[in-house]
Amino acid sequence: MRLLFKHFKYSIIWILLIVFLSLFPSTSFDNSSFLIFPHFDKIIHVFLYFILTITILSGLYKYKNQYSKILIYTISLLITIILGGFMELVQGYMGPIIGRGLDIFDFFSNIAGSLLAIFSFIIYQFSVR
What pTM was estimated for this model as a whole? Predict the structure, then answer.
């Protein structure tokens, strides 16, 4: 368990941040100055899931001698898809309480951030060789 936390401590912290931000009442963001243009929140989703995927990949990559790289990329993508889908479902279910709702485009933005991270990670791995 200690080894798991050692390799994935940043992933765990980032997941907790995503859960907190996802369940934070939307009324706090309604007139925020950081919402520069319509749908700016999609860029935030891409960013959050990009960072999450990079932290997961970094933790899993320590096991590259035990698992194939394609399995590492697949596991990272599945974890982020499951988390993103679950958080959207929770937002949809708790919508009246937290002032949020299920948004399929948020989910697609999460996946886009994860895919972008995986492609960036692959390019980085090739450039380091």
Answer: 0.88
Question: What is the extent of the structural domain holding 75?
Answer: 45-129
Separation between Cα atoms, residue 88 and residue 104, nearest integer Å: 8
Number of folded domains that form the chain: 1
Q: Is 86 helix (H, G, I), strand (E, B) or coil?
A: helix
User: CA end-to-end span of the chain, whole Å?
Assistant: 32
* DSSP-assigned letter for residue 7: H
| Cα gap 18→28, rounded to integer Å | 16
129 inside domain: yes
pLDDT digits (tens, 9 = 90+) for 40-89: 789 999 999 999 999 999 999 888 888 899 999 999 999 999 999 999 99
- What's the rounded Cα separation, in Å, for the pair 55 and 3? 15
Nearest to 119 by CA among 77, 85, 80, 87: 77
Q: How far is CA 94 from CA 21, 63, 120, 122, in A?
A: 14, 38, 34, 37
Backbone angles phi, psi at 24, to 5 degrees: -70, 135
